[in-house]
Design brief:
It is a single chain. It is built from 10 helices and 15 strands. By secondary structure, the protein is an alpha/beta fold. The structure holds nicotinamide-adenine-dinucleotide. The site of nicotinamide-adenine-dinucleotide has 25 residues, from helix 1.
């Protein structure tokens, strides 16, 4: 039964879990929380009123599944699929933070469960809810810079700056086994490429650790997505860059669109010297989490998943698997599915 005030279980009371808890509490939800770390449970309870605190999802479902309306999973990627399946077994809709899982095979288990069951899953590739990027997508569909030939993603951010409250060596991002690393965590941008352009025909990549960061996950990804119609998309993802950069440059035969997170801007130029027409935005990073939370509450109340599905997440992992294989073999790896 769905309460008038939805009761949401936050699984993983770390950075993103606390953020969702704050946003959902502000939207009128009741909150319970799971984390194996009691300090994390104390932290979340300082930020929002928490009805129940549990060290495992199993305990939470055992004690209060009937009380709950939905589950937000913000734990490390290694446990995402099993936690989704446990939530489905209790009949609870899930908002799953990206990536679906560390590998394609386990993501496919989840896709099957979503396809065969009655319980919905909304996936949190949250940049899909970012208005400037939605605007770029409209501009591309309208042919704003003519036939698109090359797109360059640059996402660079030193890992030590991500969570100032903890040593980066202790964060799951440092651990390949937990599902950390640039390839998986910055897969937002692979998702963006697929959202803009569909599946590529082939992938060429290097996925490696090249910095002095004390981690055993990858910290540097260079990837080329090859499309059948001639479009080339390059992605550079790293965990060591300062100052941080998030930018996408779309080069067409009739000009360039440049999106940057900082400044929060979409710029277009059509001439050789770069006479840019800038559109500046005032949206804040938290707005995309508020928007995904709002869509999740619609899903909890019975609406279909609109913006990001488990199949979207599986497609991302197919590209990541191809990228890993390309690095291993030194070859360009074809992707079976046609673009679209
Ligand atoms: N959409 C976005 O932009 C965005 C932003 C940040 C993080 N994320 C994603 O959210 C997830 C968590 O990232 P984070 O930065 O919050 O990490 P974090 O380390 O701050 O939080 C993860 C929490 O999960 C807890 N945890 C570990 N094992 C658990 C288990 N079995 N059950 C429940 N909790 C468990 C940890 O103790 C920790 O408190 C990752 O998948 C990450 O990629 C997405």
């Amino acid at each position: 039964m769905v309460h008038a005030a939805p009761h949401i279980l936050i699984v993983g009371s770390g950075s993103v879990g606390r953020r969702h808890a704050r946003n959902l509490a502000a939207a009128g939800c009741r909150i319970s929380a799971v984390d194996p770390r009691t300090d994390r449970l104390r932290d979340i309870a300082k930020e929002v009123p928490v009805e129940g605190c549990f060290e495992t999802l199993e305990q939470a479902l055992h004690v209060s599944a009937k009380e709950l309306s939905g589950v937000v999973i913000g734990s490390p990627p290694k446990v995402h699929v099993d936690q989704c399946l446990a939530s489905f077994a209790a009949g609870l809709p899930v908002l799953l933070e990206k990536p679906v899982s560390p590998d394609l095979a386990s993501a496919q288990r989840l896709t099957k469960a979503v396809a065969s069951g009655k319980v919905p899953l909304l996936l949190g590739y949250t940049w899909r809810w970012w208005p400037p990027l939605a605007q770029v997508r409209v501009m591309l569909a309208d042919g704003a810079v003519g036939a698109l030939r090359h797109v360059r993603f640059v996402l660079s951010a030193h890992l030590a700056d991500w969570h100032p409250w903890e040593r980066y060596q202790d964060f799951f991002m440092a651990s390949a086994e937990q599902g950390g690393g640039a390839l998986l965590d910055e897969s937002h941008w692979v998702d963006m490429a697929l959202w803009f352009f569909g599946m590529p025909e082939a992938v060429l990549a290097r996925v490696e650790r090249i910095s002095d960061l004390e981690i055993d996950s990858d910290d540097n990804v260079d990837m080329l997505l090859v499309y059948a119609d001639g479009l080339r998309v390059s992605l550079h993802l790293d965990l060591y860059g300062r100052p941080h950069e998030r930018s996408i440059r779309f080069s067409g035969e009739n000009g360039t669109i440049l999106w940057t997170a900082d400044p929060n801007r979409v710029a277009v130029a059509h001439d050789a010297v770069g006479t840019w027409e800038n559109t500046d935005y005032d949206c804040q990073r938290n707005d995309m989490f508020v928007a995904v939370g709002r869509e999740f509450l619609d899903v909890v109340r019975g609406a279909p998943v609109r913006t990001c599905t488990v199949e979207d997440g599986e497609r991302v992992l197919r590209v990541l698997d191809a990228a890993r294989e390309s690095h291993r073999t030194g070859r360009t790896v074809p992707i079976a599915a046609a673009r679209g």
